[in-house]
Amino acid sequence: MTKPVVALTKGRVEKQFIQFLEERGFDVAPLLDKGRKLQVETEQFFAFFAKGIDVATYVEHGIADLGIVGEDILLEVQPDVFDLLPLPFGQCRFAVAGEPDSNKALGKQKIATKYPNITTDYFRKQGKSVDIVKLEGSVELAPLLGLADDIVDIVETGNTLKENGLVVKEEMFSISARCIANRNSLKLKKAILYPFIEAFRVEEVIK
């Protein structure tokens, strides 16, 4: 195949990435006019669209050469992919949040989250042991209904927390969208991938 295959996270990251590509002179018309198609070919690459966690899986197994995915997926799932570089969109932060007047004094703290691995690792580094309640949906409900003392979640604007009477208690760390690559593709398709990757580089955001 003479073009890179790129897996894109559907939704907000997809829209931000398309804008990012357009600013760099890429042909994005097929991406904008795709309708309900899950696979699209442009002048410069083939693209398909999937959930973030599935993007990482497709890249890991070599179905896609590159992937655009939130850093939260990489930290939580730790797929066997090459984390190439950060991208200048999708910025948000992990935080511990809860009801403003709650202060767990006795017993082990109970934390509700979609990210048990990230949460466990964060508190372990602080020398704390917590009980994790794994949720898939709106974690903001957990402290309100007494399922957990606090939550760990991604915060962008903080509006959802505020509307549900919760506050950020502790800032954890910032994340962004990332460009990831299949390890074998980087070796076998170097000639077609590296010019593509170089177009993504934004010096001020590279860590």
Q: What features would you describe in this structure?
A:
The chain has helices spanning 12-23, 29-32, 52-60, 71-77, 116-125, 141-144, 159-163, 183-188, 190-198, and strands at 5-9, 39-41, 46-50, 66-70, 82-86, 92-98, 110-113, 131-134, 150-155, 167-175, 177-181. The strands form two sheets. A six-stranded mixed beta sheet has the order 2-3-1-4-11-5, sandwiched between helices. The mean pLDDT is 91. It starts with a strand and ends in a 9-residue tail after the last helix. It is elongated and about 60 Å long. It folds into two domains: 5-90 and 176-205, 3-Layer(aba) Sandwich (D-Maltodextrin-Binding Protein, domain 2), CATH 3.40.190; 92-173, Periplasmic binding protein-like II (D-Maltodextrin-Binding Protein, domain 2, 3-Layer(aba) Sandwich), CATH 3.40.190.10. Helix content is 32%, strand content 28%. It is an alpha/beta fold. It is found in: Cytoplasm. It holds the Pfam family HisG. It catalyses: 1-(5-phospho-beta-D-ribosyl)-ATP + diphosphate = 5-phospho-alpha-D-ribose 1-diphosphate + ATP. Keywords: Amino-acid biosynthesis, ATP-binding, Cytoplasm, Glycosyltransferase, Histidine biosynthesis, Nucleotide-binding, Transferase.
